[in-house]
Amino acid sequence: LDAYTRWDAAHLLRAADLGYANHQDAHAFFPLYPFLVRRLARVLVGALPRLCLHEALVLAGLFISNAASVGAALAFYQLSRCVLGSASSARTAALLFCVSPASAFFSTLYTEGIFALATFCGLLLLERDWAWAAAAVFAAGTAARSNGILAVLFVLYHGLRRCRRRPRRATAAAAAAAAAAACSSVAAQAALVAAPYVAWQVAGFERFCRGAGRPPAWCEGPLPDLYRHVQSEHWNVGLFRYWQWRQLPNFGLAAPTLTLSALAARAALAQMARRSSRGGRLAYLLREA
Description:
By secondary structure, this protein is an all-alpha fold. Helix content is 69%, strand content 0%. It contains eleven helices and no strands. The mean pLDDT is 86.
């Protein structure tokens, strides 16, 4: 199983084993996955005493990643049925999700599986108008990966769509009160989704900046963000920094998903244009493009 302990998996295993206290670079990896791996590894060590902790951590990570990936595929199938209204189309979508070249990352000790599970379950809950449950599940995704914070956009969109479906009130005062209550609810849900990211940065600041004799330079920023600092300094991650010739194989891995996403976006825009009273010409241009 040594092949499963390299690259990002090594950092996640180290966090599960040793924690984050003395390693700034470990803060690039959010805590939910290492926490779950650590907990399950302890159960495995108790059940199988011949396992050492390192072996138990690897086995626990493999189980969590693969179980979450299967759950993500099932959640994506249900989400597709809900959105598309077609079991056959949903099955095709789920199969495409499973055979994507990037699906290899779902079977190793990475956070893709658990993040996909949280994202698809959250979207499914939104489609069923369980907004608070969706926000809680999205928050779990944020606790697993930094880009989980983007789920705030789903929450805001669903809130706007829900407000649009509200029946007209009899009086302006009642309508204003209802709108204020709805906006407050959506704002609280968005804050819940973002809370794990904010809490993780606060934890990093407290750990490496408070009480330090000479705090690192990133601590002096107007909005100290350890995650952004580590990604920039240790992995050279930044806007368009990844766009290099040597990364072409990785862009090739992403190409099928990017292509399908672009086609789906174009189809959705064309559909919205057809529904618009002035969208006939725009729909025609999109079909011709």
